[in-house]
Amino acid sequence: MNYGLPSSKDFADEAQRLGFADVGVAACVPVEQSDMEIFDRWVADGRNAGMEYMERYREVRRDPRLLLDGARSIIMAAARYYHALPADEASRRAAGPIAA
Fold it and tell me: Reduced to 3 states, what is the DSSP secondary structure of residue 7?
């Protein structure tokens, strides 16, 4: 029973309407210890490419329930970085530089 709450499909439909590339819903549960060890090695090897925020709040990354008491689900939405050029700008660039 959902008590009138939005479903995962409702979130996906709304995210698509808003222009998000994708959306997902996952259970808010602790991360497996073996997965945290992989993450810790990944950060220790510098693979976070200077994104120092990934080094903070390790315990919350391990157990996202610590972030919001009572949370049962995590909603993730993906946005694209690329935005097409307006048609007139795209055609101008395709024509190349014009010498005066």
Answer: coil
pLDDT for the residue 92: 62
Question: Could you tell me the pLDDT band of residue 4, with boundaries at 50, 70 and 90?
Answer: confident
Find out whether 39 and 48 touch, Cβ atoms under 8 Å. no
N residues, the chain: 100
Could you give the number of structural domains in the chain?
Answer: 1
Domain with 85, as residue range(s), is 8-95
Nearest to 63 by CA among 29, 95, 89: 29
Residue 1 in any domain: the answer is: no
Beta-carbon contacts of 24 under 8 Å, excluding residues fewer than 6 positions away, are 75, 76
